Amino acid sequence: MYPSTRFSVAPMLDWTDRHCRYFHRLMSKEALLYTEMVTTGAIIHGKGDFLAYNEEEHPLALQLGGSNPVDLARCAKLAAERGYDEINLNVGCPSDRVQNGKFGACLMGEAELVAQCVAAMREVADIPVTVKTRIGIDEQDSYEFLTHFVDTVSTKGGCDNFIIHARKAWLKGLSPKENREIPPLDYPRVYQLKQDFPQLTMAINGGIKTFEEMEQHLQHLDGVMVGREAYQSPYLMAEVDQHLFGSDRPVMKRREVVEAMYPYIERQLANGSYLGHITRHMLGLFQSMPGARQWRRYISENAHKPGAGIEVVQQALAKIPAELDV
Asked: At residue 97, does pLDDT exceed 90?
């Protein structure tokens, strides 16, 4: 039995909402799924339920954004009570909005504070508290800086599980999108970190696209986290359990995945959700297959219309050639 942390889908703002996670969970029973980052302020002061999820999504981790240990502890306690399987602290997001709120990647420069935050959450929640971070920020990108951060947060905060995005973050001058693409990847540095902290669980994130790459990383580390590839080519999720968890369950076909979404879509529409909010996550399912463009276009043009229902998805599926056994 492999732990779910062996493969996870990265928390991605505006992408990994509960509709996306339900869709991914249909294809993989084993992967660990993450929420979008939710700020402590939204949970404590916001209108609406920022901790809502579908029971089917387990195993599920909540990613929190914040830097106040009292607020983080309060949210961690709520999350544990709501049944989340893990709480993750965001020490990797480089956006200006996040910096102004004093959370995300800028916290890498405040290892003692991060340790206090983790310790406060661990005290009130009986589920794992993990940290997702980068390999450095701005000019603070030496290996010594990274090891000091991990050492401080693990020894003083009690964190024993880190997800390392193998790029540094530029806090000034690059957009979040550029920060995911421009700073070079340094996988060997993350491998070295695991060698130097063998007692810690470590997963790697950044630029990972194929199962061959994942298996290569898993020779050095405990887990891989995949972001954009799992979103833009979601059928990858259908083979995760077989490739990485030793499952002998048959791989779902793409058509089966779409049809398995029908009951969920109908339930959500009955509860007032808009079709487009669900189907936008499904657009890449037939990536590079005959009919993929027509599938995407039909959904994109029709799912947002008033009263759009399940028939839009059925009509879109009809654009995929029937003779294709996919």
From this structure: no
Mean per-residue pLDDT of the chain: 95
Q: Which residue among the candidates 93, 106, 117, 159 is catalytic per the annotation?
A: 93
Alpha carbons 291 and 319: distance in angstroms, whole number? 6
243 or 177: which carries more pLDDT confidence? 243
The predicted-structure confidence for 130-160, as pLDDT tens digits, reads as follows 999 999 999 999 999 999 999 999 999 999 9
Is 93 assigned a catalytic role?
yes
CB 76 within 8 A of CB 124: yes
Q: What's phi and psi for 45, nearest 5 deg?
A: -115, -15
Q: Tell me: cis bond preceding 59? Omega within 30 of 0 counts.
A: yes
Which residues lie below 8 Å from residue 40, measured CB to CB, with a gap of 6+? Answer: 64, 65, 66, 68, 71, 72, 74, 75
Distance CA 262, CA 310 (A): 7
Residues 6+ apart with CB under 8 A from 244: 2, 6, 7, 30, 211, 214, 215, 218
